[in-house]
Amino acid sequence: MKKYISLFIMSLVFVSNAYAARPLATDDAGAADVGALELEYGYEYVNATDKEYNHSVVLKTGVLKNLDLGVEIPYQFIDLEDEGDTNGFSDIVIMSKWNILHEQERLPDFALSFAYKTESGNDEKSLGTGRPEYTFTGIFSKQFNKITYYGNLGCSVKKEFEDTFNYCFALEYSLNEKINLVGEIFGDTLLSGKFDDNATSGLVGLNYAINDAVTYDLGLASGISEAEPDYKVSTGFTFAFGG
């Protein structure tokens, strides 16, 4: 959602299948293989008025050819500026992705995803919103030599909150067989309001393949709009089994 969209989509058309990975928020168009299991653990420190120490576990598995299902379970520790500390589970997210277009010579890979954010969090303790949210996203991936492009465009429908248009655009550069350098711009835009009312951030980072099954990642995100925290530091591991 901002104005980087047209340039990015043009670049997608000109540049094989591609798979985004942590620390990117941007998703890739590939779906997990049937029977494969992917587990992600992430830790994020958020430097804002209220300091946050966020942990998350994501599980994904392929259920049909080109279709996977996943769940994200977040746990937060928050230092509230005026009300002390709080911690607990935030809103659990259930997600699915359908890979529609795959390994076309001139076209990017394309997928549609759906995510349902439950109302499991306790909004009175600042743990999630405590309101259901439904997000539909179109996902593009394209690789050209050592550079991979990713794009996500979607919309979130929220109960008792204003709906938003969501976007993520990312680049990944393969430094060698084990290390990838990544960068992205991501955020969401209210259907009305000024730029600083919207959450917009940029991230730079890397991921390192320890072996075929385990990957480590590190990322630093900085707020571009005033609605975002000054910065976030994230790190984590991805474990791949089967497939």
Q: Could you name the CATH topology? A: Porin
Strand line-up of the largest beta sheet: 1-2-3-5-6-7-8-9-10-11-12-13
Number of domains: 1
Could you name the CATH class? Mainly Beta
Cα radius of gyration in angstroms: 18 Å
> Quick one: overall form?
globular
Oligomer type: single chain
Strand content: over 45%
Overall mean pLDDT stands at 88
- Point out poorly predicted stretches: 1-18
CATH architecture level-2 label: Beta Barrel
Distance between the termini: 35 Å
List the helices and strands and how they pair.
Layout: H1 5-14, E1 37-47, E2 51-64, E3 67-80, E4 84-89, E5 93-101, E6 109-117, E7 133-144, E8 147-158, E9 164-174, E10 179-190, E11 199-209, E12 214-223, E13 231-241
Antiparallel strand pairs: 1-2, 1-13, 2-3, 3-4, 3-5, 5-6, 6-7, 7-8, 8-9, 9-10, 10-11, 11-12, 12-13
In short:
The chain has one helix at 5-14, and strands at residues 37-47, 51-64, 67-80, 84-89, 93-101, 109-117, 133-144, 147-158, 164-174, 179-190, 199-209, 214-223, 231-241. With 243 residues, the protein is mainly beta.
Question: Which terms would index this structure?
Answer:
disordered N terminus; single chain; 243 residues; Porin; twelve-stranded antiparallel beta barrel
Please characterize this protein's 3D structure.
Helix content is 4%, strand content 58%. It is mainly beta and 243 residues long. The chain has one domain (5-241): Porin, CATH 2.40.160. Strand 1 (37-47) and strand 2 (51-64) form a beta hairpin.
